[in-house]
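Can't paste images in this forum, so I'm doing it all in text. The chain is below; anyone willing to post the predicted structure tokens underneath?
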Amino acid sequence: MDRSIEGLTVLVLDDHDRIQVIWGVLLAAAGVASIAARDIDSAKSLVGKHHVDVVVIDEHLANPQEPGSDFAIWLREETDPSLSAIPILACTSDQSPAARERLLAAGASFVIYKPIDARQALLLIEGLAQRMVLRTIRREG
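Text version of the structure:
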């Protein structure tokens, strides 16, 4: 992995403090800033206030009526292209094919499973951020 991941900002939407800490430590060690949200409303507020390069979502949040995929749908439907194009990495403990399909259909760019494989997660975040940069360059160029 090259150093292109340094300086990114990742929004982590997960209702478990322990998972937020794991993501925070993992990302900080790679030179990545992280901001955490425990629910969809907080995530919407944070993504509107901060520059976010990649979003990491958990599917099963504390409110079962609002799964993480609902945030992905909201983000993809945003009229602001700087928000709707943010890459989404879904990270869930639900390894069922239905959960994977639901997350991808909602707009997740990729799905990984808990427990988190640190190297895989960082490589995916790096790849997603690079794809975003390439899209921006193509649009502007």
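The first helix runs from residue 17 to 29. Helices lie at 17-29, 40-49, 68-77, 81-84, 97-106, 118-140.
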